[in-house]
Task: inverse folding
Protein backbone atom coordinates (compact mmCIF):
# COMPACT_ATOMS: atom_id res chain seq x y z
CA UNK A 1 0.00 0.00 0.00
CA UNK A 2 1.30 3.45 -0.80
CA UNK A 3 2.37 5.47 2.20
CA UNK A 4 0.70 8.77 2.80
CA UNK A 5 2.99 11.77 2.54
CA UNK A 6 4.93 12.79 5.63
CA UNK A 7 3.18 16.12 6.00
CA UNK A 8 0.28 15.67 8.37
CA UNK A 9 -2.01 18.07 6.60
CA UNK A 10 -5.37 18.53 8.26
CA UNK A 11 -7.93 17.75 5.61
CA UNK A 12 -10.65 20.39 5.46
CA UNK A 13 -14.20 19.10 5.33
CA UNK A 14 -14.91 19.94 1.71
CA UNK A 15 -11.93 18.13 0.33
CA UNK A 16 -13.57 15.12 -1.25
CA UNK A 17 -12.45 16.05 -4.78
CA UNK A 18 -8.72 15.85 -3.95
CA UNK A 19 -9.22 12.62 -2.03
CA UNK A 20 -11.02 11.14 -5.00
CA UNK A 21 -8.03 11.99 -7.13
CA UNK A 22 -6.01 9.58 -4.99
CA UNK A 23 -8.54 6.86 -5.53
CA UNK A 24 -9.69 7.18 -9.14
CA UNK A 25 -10.50 3.74 -10.46
CA UNK A 26 -7.54 3.96 -12.74
CA UNK A 27 -7.45 0.58 -14.32
CA UNK A 28 -7.85 -1.54 -11.20
CA UNK A 29 -9.71 -4.52 -12.58
CA UNK A 30 -11.84 -5.22 -9.55
CA UNK A 31 -12.97 -1.66 -9.23
CA UNK A 32 -13.78 -1.43 -12.91
CA UNK A 33 -15.77 -4.64 -12.75
CA UNK A 34 -17.69 -3.39 -9.73
CA UNK A 35 -18.52 -0.18 -11.50
CA UNK A 36 -19.78 -2.16 -14.45
CA UNK A 37 -22.01 -4.21 -12.18
CA UNK A 38 -23.39 -1.02 -10.62
CA UNK A 39 -24.19 0.47 -13.98
CA UNK A 40 -25.83 -2.80 -14.95
CA UNK A 41 -27.91 -2.68 -11.79
CA UNK A 42 -29.32 0.65 -12.87
CA UNK A 43 -29.55 -0.14 -16.55
CA UNK A 44 -31.36 -3.46 -16.17
CA UNK A 45 -34.63 -2.20 -14.68
CA UNK A 46 -34.61 0.79 -17.00
CA UNK A 47 -34.08 -1.51 -19.95
CA UNK A 48 -36.94 -3.65 -18.71
CA UNK A 49 -39.11 -0.54 -18.52
CA UNK A 50 -38.28 0.37 -22.12
CA UNK A 51 -38.94 -3.18 -23.32
CA UNK A 52 -42.23 -3.33 -21.47
CA UNK A 53 -43.53 -0.06 -22.77
CA UNK A 54 -42.24 -0.63 -26.26
CA UNK A 55 -43.96 -4.01 -26.28
CA UNK A 56 -47.19 -2.55 -24.95
CA UNK A 57 -47.15 0.22 -27.52
CA UNK A 58 -46.55 -2.18 -30.38
CA UNK A 59 -49.27 -4.47 -29.14
CA UNK A 60 -51.70 -1.63 -28.62
CA UNK A 61 -51.21 0.16 -31.93
CA UNK A 62 -53.80 -1.79 -33.94
CA UNK A 63 -56.41 -1.04 -31.32
CA UNK A 64 -55.63 2.60 -30.62
CA UNK A 65 -58.09 4.67 -32.57
CA UNK A 66 -60.72 7.29 -32.09
CA UNK A 67 -63.39 4.62 -31.94
CA UNK A 68 -61.54 2.94 -29.09
CA UNK A 69 -61.70 6.13 -27.11
CA UNK A 70 -65.37 6.67 -27.79
CA UNK A 71 -66.89 3.21 -27.61
CA UNK A 72 -68.30 1.21 -24.78
CA UNK A 73 -66.94 -2.12 -23.57
CA UNK A 74 -68.27 -5.12 -25.37
CA UNK A 75 -68.02 -8.87 -25.25
CA UNK A 76 -66.37 -8.68 -28.62
CA UNK A 77 -62.86 -7.47 -28.06
CA UNK A 78 -62.60 -5.67 -31.36
CA UNK A 79 -65.59 -3.51 -30.64
CA UNK A 80 -64.74 -2.77 -27.06
CA UNK A 81 -63.92 0.78 -26.15
CA UNK A 82 -62.81 2.73 -23.16
CA UNK A 83 -65.23 5.64 -23.04
CA UNK A 84 -66.98 4.91 -19.71
CA UNK A 85 -63.62 4.32 -18.06
CA UNK A 86 -62.23 7.56 -19.46
CA UNK A 87 -65.25 9.57 -18.37
CA UNK A 88 -65.30 7.80 -15.02
CA UNK A 89 -61.66 8.57 -14.35
CA UNK A 90 -62.11 12.20 -15.37
CA UNK A 91 -65.10 12.63 -13.08
CA UNK A 92 -63.30 10.86 -10.27
CA UNK A 93 -60.28 13.13 -10.56
CA UNK A 94 -62.42 16.27 -10.51
CA UNK A 95 -64.42 15.12 -7.49
CA UNK A 96 -61.32 13.91 -5.67
CA UNK A 97 -59.57 17.23 -6.24
CA UNK A 98 -62.64 19.10 -5.02
CA UNK A 99 -62.53 17.14 -1.78
CA UNK A 100 -58.82 16.75 -1.25
CA UNK A 101 -57.71 20.33 -1.90
CA UNK A 102 -59.77 22.12 0.76
CA UNK A 103 -59.15 19.53 3.45
CA UNK A 104 -55.49 18.97 2.59
CA UNK A 105 -54.70 22.64 2.25
CA UNK A 106 -56.66 23.41 5.40
CA UNK A 107 -54.71 20.82 7.36
CA UNK A 108 -51.43 22.11 5.93
CA UNK A 109 -52.30 25.69 6.87
CA UNK A 110 -53.25 24.56 10.34
CA UNK A 111 -50.01 22.66 10.83
CA UNK A 112 -47.80 25.37 9.37
CA UNK A 113 -49.46 28.53 10.64
CA UNK A 114 -51.64 27.82 13.62
CA UNK A 115 -50.50 24.75 15.48
CA UNK A 116 -48.07 25.29 18.31
CA UNK A 117 -45.15 22.90 18.30
CA UNK A 118 -45.74 20.26 20.90
CA UNK A 119 -46.75 16.71 21.52
CA UNK A 120 -50.18 16.97 19.92
CA UNK A 121 -48.78 18.53 16.76
CA UNK A 122 -46.09 15.88 16.55
CA UNK A 123 -48.77 13.27 16.99
CA UNK A 124 -50.70 14.65 14.05
CA UNK A 125 -47.56 14.78 11.93
CA UNK A 126 -46.57 11.24 12.86
CA UNK A 127 -50.08 10.15 12.05
CA UNK A 128 -49.91 11.70 8.60
CA UNK A 129 -46.65 10.00 7.76
CA UNK A 130 -48.11 6.70 9.00
CA UNK A 131 -51.11 7.11 6.77
CA UNK A 132 -48.81 7.61 3.80
CA UNK A 133 -47.54 4.07 4.30
CA UNK A 134 -50.87 2.28 4.67
CA UNK A 135 -51.59 -0.03 1.71
CA UNK A 136 -54.16 1.40 -0.66
CA UNK A 137 -56.43 -1.63 -0.34
CA UNK A 138 -56.95 -0.78 3.34
CA UNK A 139 -58.28 2.62 2.28
CA UNK A 140 -60.65 0.65 0.09
CA UNK A 141 -61.88 -1.29 3.11
CA UNK A 142 -62.33 1.97 5.01
CA UNK A 143 -64.26 3.49 2.12
CA UNK A 144 -66.38 0.37 1.77
CA UNK A 145 -67.49 0.48 5.36
CA UNK A 146 -67.77 4.22 5.96
CA UNK A 147 -68.82 5.67 2.61
CA UNK A 148 -70.60 2.82 0.90
CA UNK A 149 -72.33 1.25 3.90
CA UNK A 150 -72.55 3.55 6.90
CA UNK A 151 -73.08 6.79 4.99
CA UNK A 152 -75.10 4.83 2.46
CA UNK A 153 -73.56 6.48 -0.54
CA UNK A 154 -73.56 3.20 -2.39
CA UNK A 155 -70.96 2.15 -4.93
CA UNK A 156 -70.97 5.58 -6.43
CA UNK A 157 -68.62 8.15 -7.88
CA UNK A 158 -68.80 10.19 -4.70
CA UNK A 159 -67.85 7.23 -2.54
CA UNK A 160 -64.93 6.47 -4.83
CA UNK A 161 -63.80 10.08 -4.84
CA UNK A 162 -64.06 10.30 -1.05
CA UNK A 163 -61.97 7.16 -0.67
CA UNK A 164 -59.35 8.43 -3.09
CA UNK A 165 -59.17 11.81 -1.42
CA UNK A 166 -58.45 10.11 1.91
CA UNK A 167 -55.74 8.14 0.17
CA UNK A 168 -54.23 11.31 -1.27
CA UNK A 169 -54.59 13.37 1.89
CA UNK A 170 -51.12 12.70 3.33
CA UNK A 171 -49.48 13.61 0.02
CA UNK A 172 -51.52 16.75 -0.46
CA UNK A 173 -50.83 17.87 3.11
CA UNK A 174 -47.09 17.27 2.79
CA UNK A 175 -46.75 19.05 -0.55
CA UNK A 176 -48.95 21.94 0.57
CA UNK A 177 -46.79 22.40 3.64
CA UNK A 178 -43.74 22.57 1.43
CA UNK A 179 -45.46 25.19 -0.70
CA UNK A 180 -46.45 27.22 2.36
CA UNK A 181 -42.88 27.14 3.61
CA UNK A 182 -41.61 28.78 0.45
CA UNK A 183 -43.39 32.00 1.32
CA UNK A 184 -40.81 34.17 3.14
CA UNK A 185 -41.61 35.07 6.71
CA UNK A 186 -40.79 38.69 5.99
CA UNK A 187 -43.85 38.96 3.78
CA UNK A 188 -46.05 37.66 6.57
CA UNK A 189 -44.57 40.01 9.10
CA UNK A 190 -44.92 42.95 6.76
CA UNK A 191 -48.58 42.13 6.49
CA UNK A 192 -48.97 41.96 10.27
CA UNK A 193 -47.07 45.24 10.57
CA UNK A 194 -49.64 46.83 8.33
CA UNK A 195 -52.36 45.77 10.73
CA UNK A 196 -53.74 42.66 9.07
CA UNK A 197 -54.73 39.72 11.23
CA UNK A 198 -53.74 36.14 10.59
CA UNK A 199 -56.52 35.08 8.31
CA UNK A 200 -56.25 38.25 6.23
CA UNK A 201 -52.55 37.66 5.86
CA UNK A 202 -53.15 34.12 4.76
CA UNK A 203 -55.88 35.00 2.39
CA UNK A 204 -54.28 38.02 0.76
CA UNK A 205 -50.55 37.36 0.96
CA UNK A 206 -49.54 33.79 1.67
CA UNK A 207 -52.08 31.71 -0.21
CA UNK A 208 -51.97 33.55 -3.53
CA UNK A 209 -48.23 33.22 -3.50
CA UNK A 210 -48.04 29.51 -2.78
CA UNK A 211 -51.07 28.46 -4.83
CA UNK A 212 -49.07 27.28 -7.87
CA UNK A 213 -46.96 25.11 -5.56
CA UNK A 214 -50.06 23.69 -3.91
CA UNK A 215 -51.64 22.97 -7.27
CA UNK A 216 -48.48 21.31 -8.50
CA UNK A 217 -48.58 18.98 -5.52
CA UNK A 218 -52.26 18.26 -6.07
CA UNK A 219 -51.79 17.47 -9.75
CA UNK A 220 -48.92 15.13 -8.97
CA UNK A 221 -51.06 13.39 -6.36
CA UNK A 222 -53.90 13.06 -8.86
CA UNK A 223 -51.49 11.63 -11.40
CA UNK A 224 -50.86 8.88 -8.88
CA UNK A 225 -54.52 8.50 -8.02
CA UNK A 226 -55.58 8.02 -11.62
CA UNK A 227 -53.68 4.74 -11.63
CA UNK A 228 -55.06 3.42 -8.35
CA UNK A 229 -57.07 0.29 -8.76
CA UNK A 230 -57.24 -1.58 -5.45
CA UNK A 231 -59.24 0.91 -3.36
CA UNK A 232 -61.80 1.40 -6.12
CA UNK A 233 -62.23 -2.32 -6.71
CA UNK A 234 -62.68 -2.85 -2.98
CA UNK A 235 -65.44 -0.26 -2.66
CA UNK A 236 -67.17 -1.98 -5.53
CA UNK A 237 -66.45 -0.01 -8.67
CA UNK A 238 -67.80 -2.11 -11.47
CA UNK A 239 -65.53 -3.75 -13.95
CA UNK A 240 -67.97 -4.04 -16.80
CA UNK A 241 -69.81 -0.81 -17.29
CA UNK A 242 -71.63 -0.08 -20.49
CA UNK A 243 -72.98 3.33 -19.57
CA UNK A 244 -71.68 6.72 -18.59
CA UNK A 245 -72.09 7.97 -15.03
CA UNK A 246 -74.94 10.44 -14.95
CA UNK A 247 -74.59 11.82 -11.45
CA UNK A 248 -72.27 11.70 -8.47
CA UNK A 249 -74.26 8.86 -7.02
CA UNK A 250 -74.17 6.62 -10.04
CA UNK A 251 -72.00 3.53 -10.37
CA UNK A 252 -68.83 3.99 -12.33
CA UNK A 253 -65.68 2.49 -13.65
CA UNK A 254 -62.22 3.90 -14.13
CA UNK A 255 -59.27 3.45 -16.50
CA UNK A 256 -57.19 1.14 -14.31
CA UNK A 257 -60.23 -0.97 -13.47
CA UNK A 258 -61.08 -1.42 -17.14
CA UNK A 259 -57.48 -2.43 -17.82
CA UNK A 260 -57.65 -4.89 -14.94
CA UNK A 261 -60.87 -6.33 -16.28
CA UNK A 262 -59.42 -6.84 -19.75
CA UNK A 263 -56.17 -8.32 -18.46
CA UNK A 264 -58.09 -10.79 -16.32
CA UNK A 265 -59.81 -12.28 -19.35
CA UNK A 266 -58.18 -15.31 -20.91
CA UNK A 267 -58.65 -14.28 -24.54
CA UNK A 268 -55.54 -12.64 -25.99
CA UNK A 269 -57.63 -10.11 -27.94
CA UNK A 270 -58.63 -8.55 -24.65
CA UNK A 271 -55.00 -8.31 -23.69
CA UNK A 272 -54.54 -6.11 -26.74
CA UNK A 273 -57.34 -3.93 -25.41
CA UNK A 274 -55.60 -3.84 -22.06
CA UNK A 275 -52.41 -2.67 -23.74
CA UNK A 276 -54.34 0.08 -25.52
CA UNK A 277 -55.94 1.08 -22.24
CA UNK A 278 -52.51 1.24 -20.65
CA UNK A 279 -51.29 3.60 -23.35
CA UNK A 280 -54.31 5.82 -22.74
CA UNK A 281 -53.71 5.78 -18.99
CA UNK A 282 -50.02 6.55 -19.37
CA UNK A 283 -50.88 9.31 -21.80
CA UNK A 284 -53.18 10.86 -19.23
CA UNK A 285 -50.49 10.58 -16.56
CA UNK A 286 -47.89 12.17 -18.83
CA UNK A 287 -50.28 15.04 -19.49
CA UNK A 288 -50.80 15.60 -15.79
CA UNK A 289 -47.12 15.40 -14.96
CA UNK A 290 -46.38 17.80 -17.80
CA UNK A 291 -48.98 20.18 -16.43
CA UNK A 292 -47.42 19.97 -12.99
CA UNK A 293 -43.94 20.66 -14.36
CA UNK A 294 -45.24 23.60 -16.40
CA UNK A 295 -46.89 25.03 -13.28
CA UNK A 296 -43.68 24.59 -11.34
CA UNK A 297 -41.58 26.43 -13.91
CA UNK A 298 -44.16 29.18 -14.11
CA UNK A 299 -44.05 29.43 -10.33
CA UNK A 300 -40.29 29.69 -10.33
CA UNK A 301 -40.41 32.44 -12.91
CA UNK A 302 -43.06 34.24 -10.91
CA UNK A 303 -41.03 34.06 -7.69
CA UNK A 304 -37.90 35.29 -9.40
CA UNK A 305 -39.88 38.17 -10.82
CA UNK A 306 -40.88 39.15 -7.30
CA UNK A 307 -37.34 39.32 -6.04
CA UNK A 308 -36.15 42.77 -7.01
CA UNK B 1 -41.69 29.68 15.36
CA UNK B 2 -39.75 32.76 16.44
CA UNK B 3 -42.34 35.30 15.43
CA UNK B 4 -43.27 35.66 19.08
CA UNK B 5 -43.79 39.40 18.84
CA UNK B 6 -45.85 39.03 15.70
CA UNK B 7 -47.88 36.36 17.44
CA UNK B 8 -49.26 38.92 19.88
CA UNK B 9 -50.66 40.70 16.90
CA UNK B 10 -51.83 37.37 15.53
CA UNK B 11 -54.09 36.43 18.40
CA UNK B 12 -57.47 35.84 16.80
CA UNK B 13 -59.88 38.48 17.86
CA UNK B 14 -62.54 38.75 15.22
CA UNK B 15 -65.22 36.09 15.20
CA UNK B 16 -64.52 35.18 11.59
CA UNK B 17 -60.90 34.72 12.52
CA UNK B 18 -61.83 32.32 15.31
CA UNK B 19 -64.19 30.40 13.04
CA UNK B 20 -61.46 30.02 10.46
CA UNK B 21 -58.99 28.66 12.95
CA UNK B 22 -61.56 26.15 14.17
CA UNK B 23 -62.23 24.96 10.64
CA UNK B 24 -58.54 24.61 9.93
CA UNK B 25 -57.99 22.73 13.15
CA UNK B 26 -60.75 20.34 12.11
CA UNK B 27 -58.96 19.74 8.83
CA UNK B 28 -55.80 18.97 10.72
CA UNK B 29 -57.61 16.50 12.92
CA UNK B 30 -59.27 14.78 9.96
CA UNK B 31 -56.09 12.87 9.36
CA UNK B 32 -56.25 11.54 12.90
CA UNK B 33 -59.89 10.72 12.29
CA UNK B 34 -58.86 8.73 9.22
CA UNK B 35 -56.53 6.56 11.23
CA UNK B 36 -59.14 6.12 13.93
CA UNK B 37 -61.62 5.21 11.22
CA UNK B 38 -59.33 2.61 9.69
CA UNK B 39 -58.64 0.98 13.03
CA UNK B 40 -62.30 1.12 14.06
CA UNK B 41 -63.61 -0.37 10.81
CA UNK B 42 -61.06 -3.16 10.76
CA UNK B 43 -61.48 -3.97 14.43
CA UNK B 44 -65.27 -3.96 14.47
CA UNK B 45 -65.63 -6.21 11.45
CA UNK B 46 -62.71 -8.44 12.41
CA UNK B 47 -64.12 -8.88 15.89
CA UNK B 48 -67.34 -9.99 14.28
CA UNK B 49 -65.30 -12.51 12.36
CA UNK B 50 -63.37 -13.70 15.39
CA UNK B 51 -66.60 -14.17 17.29
CA UNK B 52 -67.27 -17.08 14.98
CA UNK B 53 -63.75 -18.22 14.17
CA UNK B 54 -61.45 -18.31 17.18
CA UNK B 55 -58.19 -16.45 16.80
CA UNK B 56 -56.06 -19.50 17.47
CA UNK B 57 -57.72 -21.32 14.61
CA UNK B 58 -57.11 -18.31 12.36
CA UNK B 59 -53.46 -18.35 13.29
CA UNK B 60 -52.82 -22.09 13.15
CA UNK B 61 -55.02 -23.64 10.50
CA UNK B 62 -53.06 -24.35 7.34
CA UNK B 63 -55.92 -24.09 4.90
CA UNK B 64 -57.87 -21.11 3.68
CA UNK B 65 -61.15 -22.17 2.10
CA UNK B 66 -63.84 -19.75 3.27
CA UNK B 67 -65.88 -20.11 0.11
CA UNK B 68 -65.86 -23.88 -0.10
CA UNK B 69 -68.28 -26.23 1.56
CA UNK B 70 -65.58 -27.44 3.94
CA UNK B 71 -64.56 -24.11 5.41
CA UNK B 72 -61.13 -23.48 6.79
CA UNK B 73 -60.00 -20.11 8.02
CA UNK B 74 -56.29 -20.42 8.50
CA UNK B 75 -54.27 -17.39 7.48
CA UNK B 76 -51.12 -19.33 6.62
CA UNK B 77 -51.77 -19.96 2.91
CA UNK B 78 -52.40 -16.28 2.25
CA UNK B 79 -49.54 -15.28 4.51
CA UNK B 80 -47.18 -17.64 2.70
CA UNK B 81 -48.29 -16.17 -0.62
CA UNK B 82 -47.50 -12.70 0.64
CA UNK B 83 -44.18 -13.81 2.12
CA UNK B 84 -43.13 -15.69 -1.01
CA UNK B 85 -43.78 -12.79 -3.36
CA UNK B 86 -42.21 -10.35 -0.91
CA UNK B 87 -39.03 -12.41 -0.55
CA UNK B 88 -38.68 -12.71 -4.32
CA UNK B 89 -39.29 -8.98 -4.70
CA UNK B 90 -36.64 -8.11 -2.13
CA UNK B 91 -34.19 -10.51 -3.76
CA UNK B 92 -34.49 -8.34 -6.83
CA UNK B 93 -34.84 -4.94 -5.21
CA UNK B 94 -32.23 -5.10 -2.47
CA UNK B 95 -29.07 -5.99 -4.43
CA UNK B 96 -29.97 -3.89 -7.47
CA UNK B 97 -31.19 -1.00 -5.36
CA UNK B 98 -28.14 -1.05 -3.15
CA UNK B 99 -25.76 -1.19 -6.12
CA UNK B 100 -27.63 1.66 -7.75
CA UNK B 101 -27.40 3.64 -4.51
CA UNK B 102 -23.67 3.02 -4.18
CA UNK B 103 -23.14 4.15 -7.74
CA UNK B 104 -25.25 7.27 -7.29
CA UNK B 105 -23.72 8.19 -3.95
CA UNK B 106 -20.08 7.34 -4.51
CA UNK B 107 -19.21 7.15 -8.16
CA UNK B 108 -21.60 9.08 -10.35
CA UNK B 109 -20.83 12.62 -11.31
CA UNK B 110 -23.37 15.09 -9.88
CA UNK B 111 -24.80 15.84 -13.31
CA UNK B 112 -25.31 12.17 -14.08
CA UNK B 113 -26.82 11.53 -10.66
CA UNK B 114 -29.21 14.45 -11.11
CA UNK B 115 -30.56 12.84 -14.26
CA UNK B 116 -30.55 9.24 -13.08
CA UNK B 117 -32.42 9.78 -9.83
CA UNK B 118 -35.68 11.06 -11.35
CA UNK B 119 -35.43 8.42 -14.06
CA UNK B 120 -35.33 5.74 -11.41
CA UNK B 121 -38.28 7.38 -9.71
CA UNK B 122 -40.27 6.72 -12.88
CA UNK B 123 -40.15 3.06 -11.97
CA UNK B 124 -42.02 3.84 -8.79
CA UNK B 125 -44.60 5.98 -10.55
CA UNK B 126 -45.89 3.38 -13.01
CA UNK B 127 -49.40 2.27 -12.01
CA UNK B 128 -49.31 -1.17 -10.48
CA UNK B 129 -52.03 -2.46 -12.78
CA UNK B 130 -49.62 -1.77 -15.65
CA UNK B 131 -46.91 -3.76 -13.90
CA UNK B 132 -49.40 -6.56 -13.39
CA UNK B 133 -50.14 -6.60 -17.10
CA UNK B 134 -46.44 -6.89 -17.88
CA UNK B 135 -45.94 -9.61 -15.32
CA UNK B 136 -48.71 -11.69 -16.83
CA UNK B 137 -48.16 -11.09 -20.55
CA UNK B 138 -44.43 -10.51 -20.80
CA UNK B 139 -42.47 -11.87 -17.85
CA UNK B 140 -44.35 -15.14 -17.39
CA UNK B 141 -44.13 -16.26 -21.03
CA UNK B 142 -40.46 -15.27 -21.13
CA UNK B 143 -39.71 -17.22 -17.97
CA UNK B 144 -41.67 -20.18 -19.21
CA UNK B 145 -39.05 -20.61 -21.90
CA UNK B 146 -36.39 -20.97 -19.27
CA UNK B 147 -38.13 -22.62 -16.36
CA UNK B 148 -40.03 -25.77 -17.16
CA UNK B 149 -43.18 -26.28 -15.23
CA UNK B 150 -43.81 -22.59 -14.63
CA UNK B 151 -47.55 -22.09 -14.36
CA UNK B 152 -49.40 -19.29 -16.10
CA UNK B 153 -50.01 -17.73 -12.72
CA UNK B 154 -47.07 -17.92 -10.41
CA UNK B 155 -45.33 -16.12 -7.62
CA UNK B 156 -42.04 -15.69 -9.46
CA UNK B 157 -43.12 -13.28 -12.21
CA UNK B 158 -45.18 -11.23 -9.80
CA UNK B 159 -42.30 -11.14 -7.32
CA UNK B 160 -39.75 -10.06 -9.92
CA UNK B 161 -41.93 -7.27 -11.26
CA UNK B 162 -42.72 -6.14 -7.71
CA UNK B 163 -38.99 -6.01 -7.08
CA UNK B 164 -38.52 -3.68 -10.04
CA UNK B 165 -41.28 -1.48 -8.68
CA UNK B 166 -39.75 -1.32 -5.20
CA UNK B 167 -36.20 -0.78 -6.43
CA UNK B 168 -36.42 3.04 -6.43
CA UNK B 169 -37.55 3.09 -2.81
CA UNK B 170 -34.61 0.97 -1.67
CA UNK B 171 -32.20 2.86 -3.92
CA UNK B 172 -33.35 6.31 -2.90
CA UNK B 173 -33.36 5.72 0.84
CA UNK B 174 -30.08 3.81 0.73
CA UNK B 175 -28.52 6.63 -1.23
CA UNK B 176 -29.66 9.08 1.44
CA UNK B 177 -28.07 6.85 4.06
CA UNK B 178 -24.81 6.63 2.11
CA UNK B 179 -24.51 10.36 1.49
CA UNK B 180 -25.19 10.96 5.17
CA UNK B 181 -21.96 9.20 6.09
CA UNK B 182 -19.58 11.99 7.13
CA UNK B 183 -16.79 12.83 4.75
CA UNK B 184 -14.30 12.52 7.58
CA UNK B 185 -14.85 8.76 7.75
CA UNK B 186 -14.15 8.32 4.07
CA UNK B 187 -11.13 10.58 4.17
CA UNK B 188 -9.76 8.77 7.15
CA UNK B 189 -9.94 5.56 5.18
CA UNK B 190 -8.28 7.10 2.17
CA UNK B 191 -5.61 8.59 4.42
CA UNK B 192 -4.84 5.11 5.67
CA UNK B 193 -4.23 4.07 2.09
CA UNK B 194 -7.57 2.53 1.29
CA UNK B 195 -8.96 2.21 -2.20
CA UNK B 196 -12.33 3.61 -3.11
CA UNK B 197 -13.91 0.20 -3.39
CA UNK B 198 -12.43 -0.93 -0.11
CA UNK B 199 -13.58 2.23 1.59
CA UNK B 200 -17.09 1.78 0.27
CA UNK B 201 -17.39 -1.74 1.52
CA UNK B 202 -15.45 -1.50 4.75
CA UNK B 203 -16.27 1.98 5.96
CA UNK B 204 -19.22 3.59 4.21
CA UNK B 205 -21.60 0.65 3.96
CA UNK B 206 -21.24 -0.48 7.58
CA UNK B 207 -21.66 3.11 8.69
CA UNK B 208 -24.84 3.47 6.67
CA UNK B 209 -26.20 0.07 7.61
CA UNK B 210 -29.04 1.37 9.78
CA UNK B 211 -30.30 3.53 6.95
CA UNK B 212 -30.03 0.67 4.49
CA UNK B 213 -31.91 -1.63 6.84
CA UNK B 214 -34.58 1.05 7.21
CA UNK B 215 -34.82 1.28 3.42
CA UNK B 216 -35.14 -2.50 3.18
CA UNK B 217 -37.89 -2.62 5.78
CA UNK B 218 -39.79 0.09 3.95
CA UNK B 219 -39.42 -1.87 0.73
CA UNK B 220 -40.76 -4.97 2.46
CA UNK B 221 -43.70 -2.98 3.76
CA UNK B 222 -44.46 -1.77 0.27
CA UNK B 223 -44.24 -5.30 -1.12
CA UNK B 224 -46.53 -6.69 1.54
CA UNK B 225 -49.16 -4.07 0.75
CA UNK B 226 -48.96 -4.42 -3.00
CA UNK B 227 -52.20 -5.57 -4.55
CA UNK B 228 -52.62 -5.38 -8.30
CA UNK B 229 -49.42 -7.01 -9.50
CA UNK B 230 -50.15 -10.12 -7.48
CA UNK B 231 -53.87 -10.02 -8.16
CA UNK B 232 -53.20 -10.14 -11.90
CA UNK B 233 -50.15 -12.36 -12.14
CA UNK B 234 -49.84 -14.54 -9.06
CA UNK B 235 -53.16 -16.31 -9.12
CA UNK B 236 -56.11 -16.87 -6.87
CA UNK B 237 -55.31 -20.19 -5.28
CA UNK B 238 -54.41 -19.93 -1.62
CA UNK B 239 -51.62 -22.39 -1.19
CA UNK B 240 -49.18 -22.97 1.62
CA UNK B 241 -46.00 -23.37 -0.37
CA UNK B 242 -42.53 -22.05 -1.00
CA UNK B 243 -42.58 -23.00 -4.67
CA UNK B 244 -42.47 -19.88 -6.83
CA UNK B 245 -43.67 -21.70 -9.92
CA UNK B 246 -47.24 -22.38 -8.85
CA UNK B 247 -50.24 -20.10 -8.43
CA UNK B 248 -50.50 -18.57 -4.99
CA UNK B 249 -52.73 -15.94 -3.48
CA UNK B 250 -51.62 -13.09 -1.28
CA UNK B 251 -53.61 -11.38 1.45
CA UNK B 252 -54.14 -8.33 -0.73
CA UNK B 253 -55.22 -10.33 -3.77
CA UNK B 254 -57.77 -12.17 -1.65
CA UNK B 255 -59.41 -8.90 -0.62
CA UNK B 256 -59.70 -7.96 -4.29
CA UNK B 257 -61.05 -11.38 -5.20
CA UNK B 258 -63.87 -11.19 -2.68
CA UNK B 259 -64.64 -7.57 -3.55
CA UNK B 260 -65.07 -8.52 -7.19
CA UNK B 261 -67.31 -11.44 -6.35
CA UNK B 262 -70.83 -11.54 -5.10
CA UNK B 263 -70.33 -12.58 -1.53
CA UNK B 264 -73.16 -10.88 0.34
CA UNK B 265 -72.06 -8.29 2.86
CA UNK B 266 -72.57 -8.97 6.53
CA UNK B 267 -71.80 -12.66 6.20
CA UNK B 268 -68.89 -14.45 7.80
CA UNK B 269 -67.35 -15.03 4.40
CA UNK B 270 -67.45 -11.34 3.64
CA UNK B 271 -66.00 -10.45 7.02
CA UNK B 272 -62.92 -12.46 6.18
CA UNK B 273 -61.63 -9.51 4.15
CA UNK B 274 -61.61 -7.39 7.27
CA UNK B 275 -59.80 -10.02 9.29
CA UNK B 276 -57.20 -10.24 6.53
CA UNK B 277 -57.22 -6.45 6.26
CA UNK B 278 -56.49 -6.16 9.96
CA UNK B 279 -53.56 -8.56 9.67
CA UNK B 280 -52.28 -6.59 6.70
CA UNK B 281 -52.66 -3.27 8.46
CA UNK B 282 -50.87 -4.48 11.58
CA UNK B 283 -48.01 -5.94 9.55
CA UNK B 284 -47.38 -2.78 7.58
CA UNK B 285 -47.83 -0.63 10.68
CA UNK B 286 -45.13 -2.55 12.53
CA UNK B 287 -42.80 -2.48 9.52
CA UNK B 288 -43.31 1.23 8.92
CA UNK B 289 -42.85 2.04 12.59
CA UNK B 290 -39.61 0.05 12.67
CA UNK B 291 -38.28 1.81 9.61
CA UNK B 292 -39.27 5.19 11.00
CA UNK B 293 -37.59 4.48 14.32
CA UNK B 294 -34.37 3.47 12.60
CA UNK B 295 -34.31 6.57 10.48
CA UNK B 296 -35.10 8.82 13.43
CA UNK B 297 -32.24 7.23 15.35
CA UNK B 298 -29.87 7.99 12.51
CA UNK B 299 -30.96 11.60 12.29
CA UNK B 300 -30.42 12.01 16.00
CA UNK B 301 -26.97 10.62 16.49
CA UNK B 302 -25.59 8.71 13.57
CA UNK B 303 -25.92 5.40 15.41
CA UNK B 304 -24.90 2.39 13.36
Result:
Amino acid sequence: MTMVSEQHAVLPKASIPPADALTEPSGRGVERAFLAICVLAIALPLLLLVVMFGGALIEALPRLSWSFLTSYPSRRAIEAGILPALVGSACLMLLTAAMAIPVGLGAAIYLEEYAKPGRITSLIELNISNLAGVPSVIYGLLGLEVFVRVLDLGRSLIAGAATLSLLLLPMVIMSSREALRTVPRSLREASYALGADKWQTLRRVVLPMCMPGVLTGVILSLARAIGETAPLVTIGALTYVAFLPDSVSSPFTALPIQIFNWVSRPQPEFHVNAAAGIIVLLGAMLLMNGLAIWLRTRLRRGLEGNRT
Amino acid sequence: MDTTRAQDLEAPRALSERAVSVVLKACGWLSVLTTVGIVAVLLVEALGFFAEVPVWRFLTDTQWTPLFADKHFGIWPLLSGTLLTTVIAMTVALPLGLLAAIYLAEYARPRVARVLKPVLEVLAGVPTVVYGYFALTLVTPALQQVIPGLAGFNGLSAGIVMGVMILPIVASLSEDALTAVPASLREGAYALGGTKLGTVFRVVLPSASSGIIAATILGVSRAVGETMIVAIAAGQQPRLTADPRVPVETMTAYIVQISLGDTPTGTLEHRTIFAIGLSLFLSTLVLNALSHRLRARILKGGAT
